[in-house]
């Protein structure tokens, strides 16, 4: 096979289904697609924003887990290019939403493989904008998505701020996320480097090179491919660690789960908003109280006034906290 410097022809297969299932046989492999069209701008682009893609990802994942009764199953993400920013935004959305069923995604995520993800933006953002303008007379291109790659983008700043907040919180909580980054070692012919090393890495986490350009770095032709071996090696390690945690939890936490089972809230419950806000302030947001000291809130009232219902409602809404 004849090749050009900086270009290696790779046989295109859908490696998550064709290869990964052989190395991770007892895992469920799902894929999420969207139209961002940063590099191959000649294809039609979606008019969705990055935040919409992220919320769609979380929503689709939650519904699939609920449908199959696997809400507590651990999650590993593999994300390429802009998909990494979608994943980061999705986890931030999951973490900070008021919807309890949405929070399960961030809570169950244990590891992320980032492949050529522009965490700090891309120097080719201006080139991407130029490309979308060139085809604008023929197709509707998504300038909002491409604009996120500008290193000075406010949206990129918000995505990274939200994700780094999660990393700090998870570390403080003793449930640190496992992260490995990969960067492209070859340039795209006639274009150059898409995501430089300094943008593809996250300080404090491992970062390895894949001998391919930005578009080909996720095209693994076989299980013998070095890039594939590196990616699957990370996933295997995390999978084993997650399995040990699940087995430990299943033995040690059984009685704790029964002990803290929350009574069903009456469908006739009308709510005591002011009282609920006071409970939240005392148990969740009281900066004056030591974090590990038991806190007590006494509710006094005549029989049948709804004291138990208020407590049950609060416990149900904040079960994960």
Mean pLDDT: 78
Please report which band the strand proportion falls in: under 5%, 5-15%, 15-25%, 25-35%, 35-45% or over 45%.
5-15%
Largest sheet: 4 strands, parallel
User: How many beta-strand elements?
Assistant: 4
Give the class from helix and strand content and strand pairing: alpha/beta
Explain how this protein is built.
- There is one protein chain.
- With 321 residues, the protein is of the alpha/beta class.
- 45% of the residues lie in helices and 8% in strands.
- It has twelve helices and four strands; from the N terminus they run ααβααβαααβαβαααα.
- It has helices at residues 15-23, 50-67, 82-96, 100-108, 125-134, 143-147, 154-172, 197-200, 226-252, 254-259, 273-283, 307-317, and strands spanning 75-80, 109-115, 178-184, 206-210.
- Strands 1-2-3-4 form a four-stranded parallel β-sheet, sandwiched between helices.
- Helix 8 (197-200) links the parallel strand 3 and strand 4.
- Helix 2 crosses helix 3, helix 2 crosses helix 4 and helix 3 (82-96) packs across helix 7 (154-172).
- The longest helix is centred in the C-terminal third of the chain and has 27 residues, at 226-252.
- It is elongated.
